[in-house]
Amino acid sequence: SLYVSEYFSQSAQKLSFYSWYGNAKVFHFHVPEDTVLLRWLLQASRGKEPECTSMEVTVHFRYGAPPVINPLGTHFPANATVRPSYNISITLSSAVQNTTFVNITTPAAGDWFIAAHLPEAAGRIEVKGFSTPCTYMFQADMFVLRLTDMPVLEPGVAMPQTIISPAKPLHVKVFVPKYTARMWFELRSCVTSEQKACAVRVVLGSITLPQSFQRIITCTGNVNCSLGLDSLPWEKWLQIMVESLGTANASVSVEMLASFTDCRPGSSSSFLNFSSLNQSQAGSGPGSTGTEGSPTLSPGAALRNASDQRSFCLQNQPVVREDLDVVSVRYRLLNGPSVPVYSISPTLLLLNLNTGMDSGGSLVVNLLFNKTSLSQANATVVACLSAASPVLSLNTTRNCSTAFFQGYPLSVSASSAEAMVIVLYPQTDDWFLSLQLICPKGQGECNTAEAKVTIIAYLTPCFNDCGPYGQCSLLRRHGYLYAGCSCKAGWSGWSCTDDTKAQSVGAQNLATLLLTLSNLMFLPAIVVAVYRYYLVEASVYTYTMFFSTFYHACDQPGVAVMCIMDYDTLQYCDFLGSVVSIWVTILCMSRVKKILKYVLFILGTLLIAMSLQLDRRGVWNMMGPCLFALVIMIAAWVYHGVKRRHCYPSSWKRWVFYLLPGIALAFIAISVYAFMETNENYYYTHSIWHVLVAGSVAFLLPPRDKHKKPWAWSQKLTCRYQICQNDREELYAVT
Predict the structure, then answer these.
(1) Where do the DSSP E strands lie in 334-414?
(2) How far is Cα 392 from Cα 436, in angstroms, rounded to an integer?
(3) Rounded to the nearest 5°, which phi and psi values hold at 214?
(4) Is there a contact between 53 and 134 (Cβ–Cβ < 8 Å)?
(5) Could you report how far apart the first and last alpha carbons of the chain are, in Å?
(6) pLDDT in tens, 690-719
(7) Which of 220, 217, 336, 326 is nearest to 268 (CA)?
(8) What is the distance between the alpha carbons of residues 85 and 440, in angstroms, rounded to a whole number?
(9) In Å, how far are 122, 125, 127 from 675, measured between CA atoms?
(10) Structural contact between residues 74 and 492, judged by C-beta atoms closer than 8 angstroms
(11) CA distances, 52 to each of 13, 120, 242, 573 (Å)
(12) How far is C-alpha 236 from the chain's CA centre?
């Protein structure tokens, strides 16, 4: 046998603390056919900064679709069946880097996904630039060992093979045709080179995570071993591994035989009626039921139809896949939304999800039972949704499982006329929906019966669009797209349906009122500025109060939301007004000449607008203008103090009753803003920030000029054609 090793790598990603699925870093790999060994090389590292502490990285694996994870232990939406993900933990303690290997023998060919994340986020709101968070990196590399000349087992043809040693197992593959109902595998003529008792182990199927359904049989002695498998994956290669359990130097000769039992499908007589594609339906979106159903059969026609079905093992119903958008598909039945269901053979629908771009959403299947279509009141329609292969024996076992996959069961009846199943991140494959009629007194009672079931099936990025308290976000990893829900107002869960920590409507209204009405504290600052004839400053404060009020009214996570403009515009105007308000206040305190002050007003505003466009949340967008304005103010105060040979401002009352309280309020506001805000207390800590900043502005504004009366014009018209101005130098003390 000739083995070929291949190596696949992806760039490292920066890990994040987990609060929603967007924080998990996803890696997407494709395992080629005939792979006998898969090895993951997982490398986690952290920075060398003092802030870096011991950390645990959780890594999830899944075949066919991104892993469905729940690190926070929240609730999933109703009707969503979730199976635990396969995961490992990598600890970063004293070592800067940790390297871990994960080996998988005989992995399934196709898409494999890895998701990595840090523990739950603390919820503290970090101000960008105040602290340097530790950087945690993660990289996943994939090594595969592929067999280039894997022997092919022909159906019905015995194939002799030799196992050289236990260290080198035998790998063969067999192709499963479409409409295969059952495969019978037999291993016979087992002989060892040492003429001892034969001991081999046969593994059928490939490993898939988080669940693996490999079938294993152990053969000892000269007795033939056999295994029958129902509902195998159609039109796929099935790997078979045979390994010796004997001594190291003994070779084993075996003979393998595989035989298939096919299934004769029956199809709808109106399959070629393509005019049904153009039929207008009442609902065009996912979840619409349409207006037309299948025609009702007379009792005689139903009896003839039932007799015809005895020669078929299943009834095909044609389904059209209609792509609506990214990760958004609707399935339409050509014969109408209702399908007939019988007891003799299952009704089968094919839902195509094998494009490679469908596994990042949610598959929703809804069944509606027509109570008037069936005379047997106790009859039940049993359904099974499965991937890769359909279930063809619902009437006998009622077990919704195939050879290598555990399906999703549903049932509808007269007492429970509706059933729904939600498959989160369905794996890339052909999905099958099997339906069959079951009668409690035996199948003889249902031989001539026909039930009508309306089927609604669609693929959506986020189930129910994440509800009223969530936002559906489309995430991307290279060329692969998948969706996730970002919840708000205390709601959590995969689809934002977990209300364990949700805010009540009253709490949401209170948060909105606090964050908006706290901006009214700018009114005293505006009144003081107007009274002291600082009209430009008063205009800036009015601008800040207006946009801060309506930005926070639009930024609310709950139902109490009002947006008068685009959210991004309101946010930008709020940030711009806040920084410019601080800028003009400090420049006003410096008491420089008016022409210089207004030039600095305009120039600083333009530079602040540019910096906010580059990085809106950077701390230096606020600290930079503040520090520069403070330098100007201190320089001006020193100049005035040296020129007048006494402290400036000279009045102790000005310091005690205005400057020191204003400075104290400003420092408290900065401390609350930078170190105390979290997601839980944001609505009242940020409201305190509004109150403290607005109050400090009212205290810090300097008094008006003593020689100028309120609202007195500095320039007066004293003659008909000439404007006279008093250019006397200011000789009085300013307090």
Answers:
(1) 338-341, 347-353, 362-369, 380-387, 408-413
(2) 9
(3) -65, 145
(4) yes
(5) 95
(6) 999 999 999 999 987 665 555 544 444 444
(7) 336
(8) 37
(9) 13, 8, 8
(10) yes
(11) 17, 16, 49, 36
(12) 30
Cβ pair 80, 463 in contact under 8 A? yes
C-alpha 704/C-alpha 291 separation (Å) is 77
Burial category of 403 from C-beta neighbours within 10 Å (exposed 0-12, middle 13-18, buried 19 and up):
buried
% of the chain surpassing 70 pLDDT: 87
Alpha-carbon span 225 to 238, nearest angstrom: 18
Note whether 554 and 547 are within 8 A (CB): no
SS (H, E, C) 413-454: ECCCCEEEEEEECCCCEEEEEEEEEECCCCHHHHCCCCEEEE
The structure's pTM equals: 0.81
Burial of 397 (0-12, 13-18, 19+ CB in 10 A): exposed
**Residue 321 · residue 329 · CB < 8 Å:** yes
The identity of residue 437, as a single letter, is: L
Q: Measured between alpha carbons, how far is 148 from 1 in angstroms, rounded to an integer?
A: 8
Kind plus residue range of the DSSP H or E element containing 566:
none
Instruction: Measure the CA–CA gap between 250 and 165, rounded to whole angstroms.
Output: 6
Please give the average per-residue pLDDT across 585-605, as a whole number. Answer: 91
Q: Give the number of other Cβ atoms within 10 Å of residue 633's Cβ.
A: 18
* Phi–psi pair at 201, nearest 5 degrees: -125, 135
Radius of gyration of the chain (CA): 37
The answer to whether the beta carbons of residues 688 and 670 sit under 8 Å apart is no
- Whether the link from the prior residue into 286 is cis, omega within 30° of 0, is no
pLDDT in tens, 531-544: 988 999 999 999 99
Q: Confirm if 485 and 21 have CB atoms less than 8 A apart.
A: yes
Per-residue pLDDT tens digits for 443-466:
666 777 888 999 999 999 999 999
CA distances from 181 to 174, 308, 542, 661, 684 (A): 15, 19, 76, 85, 65
* C-beta of residue 579 within 8 angstroms of C-beta of residue 608: yes
Tokens of residue 567, six digits: 């959210």
> Residue 592: its pLDDT value, please?
86
617 alpha-carbon distance from chain centroid: 24
Gap between the Cα atoms of 660 and 81, Å rounded? 62
Give the whole-angstrom CA distance, residue 228 versus residue 521: 79
DSSP per position, 679-704: TTTHHHHHHHHHHHHHHHHHHHSPPP
Amino acid at 694: A
Q: Are 280 and 288 in contact (CB under 8 A)?
A: no
Taking CA 409 as the corner, what is the angle to CA 406 and CA 415, rounded to the nearest 5 degrees?
Answer: 170
Residue-wise pLDDT for 133-175, tens only, equals 888 999 999 999 999 989 999 999 999 988 888 888 999 999 9
CB 219 within 8 A of CB 206: no
Exposed/middle/buried for residue 720 (C-beta within 10 Å: 0-12, 13-18, 19+): exposed
Helix or strand run (H / E) with residue 588: helix 567-590
Rounded distance, CA 640 to CA 732, Å? 11
- Quick one: which of 260, 253, 113 has its CA closest to 189? 253
CA–CA separation, 83 vs 68, rounded Å?
8
Give 667's contacts (C-beta < 8 A, 6+ positions apart): none
